[in-house]
Input
Amino acid sequence: MASITEAELTRAIERTLVANGKMSPPEARTTARMVLGYFGLDDAVLDNKLSSEDRDRFYQLEEEGLLTSEEEDATVSRGKTWRIHYWLLKKARIRDVGQAGEAPAAEDAATVYRDIGESDWKRRAEPPPGTAPPPS
Output
């Protein structure tokens, strides 16, 4: 599968972490650059190459389904086993999220309330037909 572009990853981050309030909009592009800086043209990156701050971002992206982590055991000299942790880009998910229609425009509260008609704001003196009156 073709490499993920900065624009694709930025859009996916905007539509997940930013949309869920877990990241500010300016951080999306910075995070995408950081992630792609680790991956380059590869599909995997070793966990021990990450700084602890960057690892935290990777975990956030994993929670949103944009990255995944895996581990494997490797036998080294004298029969010792090392566990190797690494991260993988979930390219299909990144592309799906990034290409899924345009994000809806955010409406401010004033616009929403202004669009509600006067009749919707009035309380009804009687319950609607077919409902029981409130208990007294």
Notes: The beta strands are 44-46, 67-75, 81-89. The CA atoms of residues 16 and 64 lie 6 Å apart.
